[in-house]
Amino acid sequence: ESDTASEISFQFNKHKKTPSVGSHSSDMASVSSVSGSVLSVYSGDFGSVDAQGTVEFALDYDEKNREFQVHVSQCKDLAVVDERKGRSDPYVKTYLLPDKARMGKRKTSVKKRTVNPIYNEVLRYKIEKMVLLIQKLNLSVWHNDPLGRNSFLGEIEVDLASWDWSNRKLNWYPLKPRSLSAVNGVDHRGVMNLSIKYVPPGSLGKCPKNPPSGEVHIWVKDVKDLLQLRPSGVDPFVKCYVLPDTSKKSYQKTRVIKRDTNPVFNHTIVYDGFHTEDLKDACVELTVWDHEKLTNHFLGGIRLGLGTGLSYGISVDWMDSTQEEVALWQEMMSAANEWIEGLLPLRSL
What we know:
Blueprint: E1 4-9, H1 26-35, E2 54-62, E3 67-76, E4 90-97, H2 100-103, E5 105-107, E6 118-126, H3 129-132, E7 136-143, E8 151-159, E9 171-174, H4 180-185, E10 191-199, E11 214-224, E12 236-243, E13 252-253, E14 264-274, E15 283-290, E16 297-304, E17 310-311, E18 314-315, H5 323-334, E19 340-345
Parallel strand pairs: 1-14
Antiparallel strand pairs: 2-3, 2-9, 3-6, 4-5, 4-7, 7-8, 10-11, 10-19, 11-14, 12-13, 12-15, 15-16, 17-18
């Protein structure tokens, strides 16, 4: 039923505090650095003002330097955030979607006490033109609060595939409320189809020691609707760790599937060394990556566990399973020796 069966013995260290995931490998470190800053287009939005006003900008692509340029000129008639003082301190922020984590955000300087700010700044992205044409530009205006309680003032979303690149002139555009595509679709990273099973110690056959310790089986079937980072697609593969162990003993991976945003892996991983009581403190982390020569790019992942925030009494940030992930893990714990199937959305870990 599967092309590969990887079996690894897993030993828990119940007394040693495990460092955070981000410190164990270059790939995982990149996930950690991403998750702290650009997980949401609307991160830090504490405002309740209605979007109004206009923004003047122009777009250009520098073929020689392979650089996308957003010329932000000015805004007019923005909403007033602090009505008591009659002020807003606006700045402009841009993302390239859907892959905001890889491309990052750009933003202008903050203009104090004005609803008609003048910027005359250029926000730059080093990116190939063919990759740019499968992105959308999200340009939003924000009020800057010294305590970080920033307020959303309006946005515009541009489909770069249909943009008229001969138009390099500054033009005015009305600012709109939050777009449904950005709110609901920005963090859609695809879905993983998998099954999991727990085999308790001594539960197979007549021999009381078969198996000698408990086993967790993970059958990664396929993934659908991955982010397309390049016109040719992506070269995805799946990594697996059983946390808190992030050593090479715990690390397993599937093969790489070339140029496919709907890869079929059909790959089974078996971890032994599990006692039944370990299931409430362990977490199976499955992450999907785009394989490239110099560095792999994170596409999304899931964490299967109880999501309690604790592992062997120690507070850990990776014990953060969603309700769907927790439900799958709980069903596996209560149905020994049975495959439990799930279809789970990938997320930014």
